[in-house]
What we know:
InterPro entries: TPR-like_helical_dom_sf, TPR_rpt. By secondary structure, the protein is mainly α. The protein has 14 helices and two strands, in the order H-E-E-H-H-H-H-H-H-H-H-H-H-H-H-H. The protein has a domain at 192-310. The chain has helices at 2-20, 49-64, 69-81, 85-98, 103-115, 119-132, 156-170, 174-186, 191-207, 211-217, 231-240, 257-272, 276-286, 295-307; strands spanning 33-35, 41-43. Strands 1-2 form a two-stranded antiparallel sheet. It is globular. Residues 1-8 and 19-28 have low confidence and may be disordered.
Amino acid sequence: MRKALVLLILLNLACTAEKSTEDSSVPFALEDSFTTPLGKTYSISEPSDALLTKFEEAKADFETNPNDLENIIWYGRRTAYLGQYRAAIAIYSDGIELYPEEPKLYRHRGHRYISLREYDLAIADFEKAAELIQGTENEIEPDGMPNALNIPVSTLHGNIYYHLGLAYYLTHKYDKAYEAYIKCRESGSRYDNIVSSTHWLYMIQQRLENPAKADSILAPITSDSTVIENQSYADLCLLYKGQTPVDSLLQEGIGNPSNDAVRYGVANWYLYNGDTAKAILLMEELVESKAFSSFGYLAAESDLMYYFKSK
């Protein structure tokens, strides 16, 4: 019965997206699986009752007032949380037709281009979003999946630069990735923002073979600061500072964004310390996980396809 309900909701979504994009160049097809660039095919997970409820609420709000910016954003976000990335992109693209100068739409569409490995399109969207926020006041970005304390830890500006940096990193444009993550770290003083951006800044400078500069980047990291959401990045930063043993970080099991982030960071730690074989092994294990759109998975996939083959 529940499976039938899920199918009905997704079919309604397909009809809505098809109708909203009939004059658009953005392709849309209902997705039940995804094949990665490495040829691994994953079924789109059946959503939880909570995700379906939130999606139905967002869809109802959108249908009541489809021209409202927040309704468009949340309909797209809730659609993406169901694993329907093409449908979400179609919704955001339709929104951009109405609000071509709205950075939030480019920010969210760019994220889903990343999920689909369409990195050039993602970079274009995030660069456009970064251009549009120049001279504007930063703002807290509400969480679609709130943390345990229900305290949002990210901002619009921070998320734009974070994802822009990620898209550059995944295409091995390390100098540009570094510039984006510096802007991300400067966008907010909350410690969760500091550890997440510092993690990537450190890895980038290690990739650029600047270990001294990488170490200097760790200056804001302390073991007694409070982390609300990004504990995995905080732990990795302490590993980089030599304050946490590497064996304490790898958790049993992979396939969720937090564990995947840690495994990718640990893999790179082995790479920096001369154990390339161990680094590759951890990344190969990572791309066997089910979380095919987690950032750790994406980074490991890109490295296995391009970085190690260029060495």
